[in-house]
Amino acid sequence: MLQPRIGVLLHRGLLQLPSTCRYAQHETLQPLTSQLRYFTSAPYLRLPATPPQNDGLTPTPDEKDVFVPKPLGRPIGFPRPPRAGENTGVKEKKVYTGKTMSERNLEKRVDIVEKWSQNYFRDFKNIRKYRSGKTFLANTRVFRQDMALYLPNFHGATLKQGRGADTTPVLEGKVSVVRVYSSVWGESQVETFTGKKENEEMHALLATSGGVAQMVDVNIEENWLKGLIIKIFQYRLRKQRKEEDWGKYFVIRRGVSDLIRETIGLLNGRVGYIYLVDKQCKIRWAGSGNAEGTEKEDLTKGLQRLIDEQRGKMIGPIKVQPKKPEVEAKKGDDSLPVPIPIVF
Q1: Which PANTHER family match (predicted)?
Q2: pLDDT digits (tens, 9 = 90+) for 146-192
């Protein structure tokens, strides 16, 4: 005959007790549960009596990462003039031939590490830490023409031309305010420099320059999905601009290399940048992030300076003919200077 298990008997005996037994069991176990210790992590067991005070010399962990932008100490740009058709972004496929298997694997590893070392969230981190992503402070005065360097060519599409458009032919021969951004955040920062409400004087200079000065937008959007969205809503961008300005709005999908970014200061892809470029595509003034201090006024003064410089070159320098020396005869002296014979 099968016997019931011991566990079933104990289960019935403990759970099916009368109320009097349950009360006695509770009163018996209560002193034991009250003496239990609840452990926690070590940092919270012992707290300092008084918080340590900073003497002002030792930087705190947050202060160590704070970046203070400084004014540009020298001109930025490339030493060679730009040409149309450059920086298209078309790269030839790298061929790993003529080497051993281990050498090819090491070279591929280096290329992969270089490709994936670009942290996408690094730019957002800089926005949070470094004064809304401000990379440098604008120079108060424009750079000298003989010392200034060149803005590279950007290849992409415009609102007028679907593809195959270059910035160099548009910038040559005119004074240009070039606005470079990659997001709505960057565009709002650019507006602090060049907005119609924020800088009415600059727009007045552009309107009265007689075609000498212009404003050019360069929207760098390397994300194919965002680029597709911009292409779909191009009709809105056209409504916001005059028809003659459609060819001055560029959408750049590729070709902006790390060398270009480091050379002209595009270190943060989410921040807006301003460049004042002369007729030779030379960067004479540059700004980044939100306008601070007198940067907006410095941009307007620099634009006025380049417009006057451009008009002076268009008119040409005034040549003053030197006067011939005249010899006046003294009163009472009939002697005249003897001409010097010229021997051929």
Answers
A1: MITOCHONDRIAL ATPASE COMPLEX SUBUNIT ATP10
A2: 999 999 999 999 988 778 889 999 999 999 999 999 888 899 999 99
